[in-house]
């Protein structure tokens, strides 16, 4: 993907229409001059559908501003906090005078920096739930002890590495705080292009424009993940993408796919696809071919890395690709904007971009196939900040879903549902479920009544409040374990309980599980003693599916506007019965988060 | 070239191009601060495909000097 130039970015921002877009407030704490990163961050935010507001803390005032909740800097609550604490400014001793420090002095200095990190993080967490992105300390290109530095445990490079380990450790102990690896950004551009020493000396601005662009891109991967903009499915063309050549013309023996050149770029590309599959990305095929030819490669070609079991769904035919991609989205029950499509053909790329602008399209020109693996690995579109068991199993789940669909087509619905032997387990959120439960609020668009996005810190703070409950639902059936597929947030008051959030993963709906979960929420409210439960439907582009959900379950409309419908359920009436086709429903109160 | 310099200044300072006179300097243009100066220098470097030295960057504190330096550089390149 070509990056826009600085002037193009300025032009876009100058003409930006941000009315009606959700706000994205990014607050930057720093000990260096960093203002020139602003257009890059704003541009990423704007082109992804946000109205950006980038605020800068005072120069070299990180800890003071982190701890001063009354500071003007926090007058608008940030969504994201970027911390740039450059070692050259934070600890000139380690950065510039390392060779003249005694081991004790080094240790004291490392402790001081560690303490600074911990105090800053603790202060920030006291008054903001924002996602914190802390930029790691860069390892020097020319370390203090020259070539000797790399040989010893207590050289400058290793000392800085230890600082970063401690930083990572502190961040992972803090909710929604993440480590941004600046060394990787440096490696990507090369140090000569990354640093601009002229402005480091004139104005303490160390980074070149290209560096700031790279850093902003890296930051955006985190924002994407925390805002639920992560892509879910990779749709791949086959010829000249999964292998070199055209199987329909060159035949099984003629295609290029092997561990040696010229088949190796495709072999490595497939390894990367497989690795995404293992991280929970759904893999689909969209290819103009005879279907039999493609599956023959999958079954019989010796160096094929991907197998049929990895492919959730495939459209292999001679219809146009936009139509086929729409079929894939429908098949998987996910939105077009959750898809990334990769193809080698200019024509197909342009056609899909034009017909389906929601789909992210990446062109893999055949003459540059050697780069394909890096393009896929570096795109960041599928990156997440956590990796749950559900993620690791997702590919297999979607494959199982395809089998379920086949079974469903052949039997009566009730008999079918009974044959699934569904086991539902509803619990209050605990530490282990927290990441997945928060992730569900960020990823779920369709079966989601209010579409509120919560971070782990948010969920944890609601659950630990005596007037809040966070429930989640696990589902298992004879074909597989889905893991955690539903969550709900309840807020209790004496007059009523309110369902603040109610959502389910799309792949489990339409079999009564959502109704059972709603009953569990009503039961929870009942135990709190309020006579009524309120529920809200907030309309979005994607959640039409649940417009009628509360009404179908015995709620009455009490207020209605174009965007929102409010419902109430009187707890004096009996709770809905559990469908008889459920094999088991468990609802147990565990130790709640405190 | 003079018009291109003014176009860059107009973009960086966010003011109309015709409001930039030949006397433009931090005294005349209010928001010509150190951050804007950095942006100005970097944008000029991109626009004219040149690289200033740190000493030149410090000197580029007026429209007149900017034009002078750019002319000097292009003359020595020719």
Describe the fold and architecture.
The complex is a heterodimer of chains A (594) and B (78). Chain A has 594 residues and is an alpha/beta fold. Helices cover 41% and strands 19% of the residues of chain A. An eight-stranded mixed β-sheet of chain A has the order 16-17-15-14-13-12-11-18, with helices on both faces. Chain A is globular, with a radius of gyration of 27 Å. The two termini of chain A are 46 Å apart. Chain B has one domain: ACP-like (Non-ribosomal Peptide Synthetase Peptidyl Carrier Protein, Chain A). Chain B contains four helices and no strands. The longest helix of chain B has 15 residues, at 34-48. The mean pLDDT of chain B is 92. The chains are: A alpha/beta (594), B mainly alpha (78).
Q: Just name the CATH architecture of the largest domain in chain A.
A: 3-Layer(aba) Sandwich
Q: In percent terms, what proportion of residues of chain B is strand?
A: under 5%
How many separate structural domains of chain A? 3
How many domains of chain B? The number is 1
CATH architecture of chain B, by name, is Orthogonal Bundle
CATH superfamily annotation of chain B: ACP-like
CATH class of chain B: Mainly Alpha
Largest sheet of chain A: 8 strands, mixed
CATH topology of chain B: Non-ribosomal Peptide Synthetase Peptidyl Carrier Protein, Chain A
| Residue share in β-strands of chain A | 15-25%
The rounded Rg of chain A comes to: 27 Å
Mean pLDDT of chain B: 92
Cα end-to-end separation of chain B: 15 Å
Strand order of the largest sheet of chain A: 16-17-15-14-13-12-11-18
Instruction: Report the structural category of chain B.
Output: mainly alpha
Globular, elongated, flat, extended or rod-shaped: what is the shape of chain A? globular
**Assembly category:** heterodimer
N-C termini distance of chain A: 46 Å
